[in-house]
Amino acid sequence: MRFRWLVATAGLAAAIGTTVASPSASAAAGCWQHADGIRYWCNNVSGAPVYGSIGNSRLYPNPDVVVGTMYSNPSWFYCKVDGQAYVGGPHPTRWLRTVADNGQYGWMKDTAIYSETDPVRDCYPT
Hints:
Shape: globular
Protein name: Secreted protein
Organism: Streptomyces capitiformicae
Strand order of the largest sheet: 1-2-5
Number of strands: 8
Structural class: mainly beta
Strand content: 25-35%
Low-confidence stretches: 1-26
Helix content: 10-25%
Order of helices and strands: HEEEEEEEE
Distance between the termini: 57 Å
Signal peptide: 1-27
Number of helices: 1
Keywords: Signal
């Protein structure tokens, strides 16, 4: 029955010359600042991997090492960094610093976050 409703709705839209558009990635709401002024909340993919850092410095993401998983949604992030390993999406080299659900510090790929991440502060301001 549901299938027939979908077909009928699509047929009606075509008949009257309208289209049903899905929201685009650019329409995503931005991340919002936490009350502490340090962290940002963003809507993200539940179950996304959190990657470790290169070396002991915690400064740059290591796309080859998973240190935990982020099951929460929304989740909080400290900052963002661009110009790192390719992840794709609208910000193809952006990673965000966070803490995985197991307490490990790490980085999430921008593509694992539904919210627009531009509002998140830069880790290394220029």
